[in-house]
Design brief:
The protein is of the alpha/beta class. The chain contains 16 helices and 13 strands. An 11-stranded mixed sheet has the order 1-3-2-6-8-7-12-13-11-9-10, with helices on both faces. It is globular. Belongs to the amidase family.
């Protein structure tokens, strides 16, 4: 069993663990298992060992929050000497001359960047496969690990690394976290927005424990206070298992996870009762337009002829949506008014994270656009609206389904600035209902 990030960092700071040895062990695990898991697009073996040696020699080692911790980074992030492919052969491949903000903050905290994780082209889909590999669910490899942070989720759930970075535009952290039995946090747009997809995309952590998710969030957000997980009391929680607007059926075992979590949170002293916002139909249309137009905007720097067939269709639709003026601020404002109305009487909303079971693992990038859209829309019914609102949300493991062997989970959402509240509730669920940390446990 791989140590938690907190355990590694504590031991490295105390001088009882060597960062180089920790990194070498992580690289050994990757070499042994990633041929099946498919989590990494690029493993930085030599570079990571050199970086670990630099961490070991740092004069501030005893104060580093991620001292010697191997971290996987989603393949969308600038790392000196590497290029971010965004899951595509059509984009620029010139190595970055320096670290971007995310890599720089991770290094400053003492993390060792062991590799870049697999994503679907332009991060559009909740299945992370590329021509050179398929990110599989470590719990049941016949299923996809999710997307677009599917490689990051697979790396953590397989026990290859204790922590991974992801981004979330319509659920791209929470969906793979739910599929792979992890804690996955989408911060509010005011914390870590990267500007992508018209402000809907944010950076965040994937981890096996709440404490690990909190420390990675604190590093990514450059806010040490976020590493402290509170123990909240008397929280007003509304629960809903009805897919917003579409009202499509949700598998019974995904609904049961909400019932189980509700009982645990009631026992912890919180008020839990059915309740949900009044979702406007226009919000669904708003996120759909941004889902197409966001990648279309990014694709301006790519060779259109080399994009995958499904991506070319998606980009063309996005161009049409943007040209037709479907990216409207008033759509977001109308939804925000409804969300604020709900949160005037509630502190947290709890739903299933997934609205359907994951897709099977496969070469989805070879299939047509419509064949990819159907499983994508079935999965993300509960997640995408909160990217449009910019509210923080977290996916928390609850159980495992008897029908598939896959994890089940719940999503907790709160007002902007409430990331610590979500982490505190997640920690209470973790304490009352411990989950297996990895599929290799």
């Amino acid at each position: 069993m791989v140590l938690t990030a907190a355990e590694i960092a504590e031991s490295v700071r105390a001088g009882t663990l060597d960062p180089v040895q920790v990194t070498r062990e992580a690289l050994d695990r990757i070499a042994a298992a990633d041929g099946v898991v498919g989590a990494f697009r690029r493993v930085r073996a030599e570079e990571a060992l050199a970086d670990a040696a630099e961490v070991a020699a740092r004069p501030d080692l005893a104060s580093l929050p991620l001292a010697g911790v191997p971290v996987a980074v989603k393949d969308v992030t600038a790392i000196a000497g590497e290029f971010a492919s965004h899951g595509s052969v059509a984009g620029p491949s010139t190595p970055a001359g320096e670290d971007g903000v995310i890599a720089a903050r991770l290094r400053a905290a003492g993390a060792v960047l062991v590799g870049l994780t697999r994503v679907p082209e332009l991060c559009i889909w909740p299945m992370s496969d590329t021509p050179d590999g398929i990110a599989r669910n470590p719990w049941e490899p016949t299923y996809a690990s999710g997307g677009s942070s599917g490689g990051s989720a697979a790396a953590v759930a397989a026990g290859l690394v204790p922590l991974a970075h992801g981004t979330d535009g319509l659920g791209s952290i929470r969906l793979p976290a739910a599929m792979c039995g992890l804690v996955g946090l989408k911060p509010g747009a005011d914390r870590l927005a990267e500007g992508g997809w018209f402000g809907m995309s944010v950076h965040g952590p994937l981890a096996t424990t709440v404490a690990d998710a909190a420390v990675l969030l604190s590093v990514l957000a450059s806010d040490p206070s976020l590493a402290t997980v509170p123990s909240p009391s008397g929280v007003r929680i509304g629960t809903s298992t009805t897919v917003p607007v579409l009202r499509s059926p949700v598998p019974r075992e995904l609904v049961a996870a909400v019932t189980q979590a509700a009982e645990l949170l009631k026992a912890a002293g919180h008020t839990v009762a059915p309740g949900a916002p009044k979702y406007p139909v226009s919000a669904i249309l708003g996120i759909s337009a941004r889902w197409c137009a966001g990648p279309a905007e990014q694709a301006r720097d790519f060779d259109f002829s080399r994009l995958q067939r499904r991506t070319r269709t998606h980009v063309r639709l996005g161009q049409l949506f943007e040209k037709a003026g479907f990216i409207r601020e008033r759509t977001k404002q109308r939804w925000l008014a409804r969300a604020e109305e709900f949160f005037a009487g509630h502190d947290v909303l709890m739903t299933p994270t997934l609205s359907h079971w994951p897709a099977k693992a496969g070469r989805w990038h070879e299939r047509r656009w419509a064949a990819n859209v159907v499983p994508s829309l079935r999965l993300a019914g509960f997640t995408g609206l909160w990217n449009l609102a910019g509210y923080p949300a977290i996916s928390v493991p609850v159980s495992r389904a008897s029908s598939s062997g896959l994890p089940t989970s719940v999503q907790l959402i709160t007002r902007p600035g409430g990331e610590s509240l979500l982490l505190g509730l997640a920690a209470q669920l973790e304490s009352a209902n411990p989950w297996p940390r990895t599929a290799r446990a």
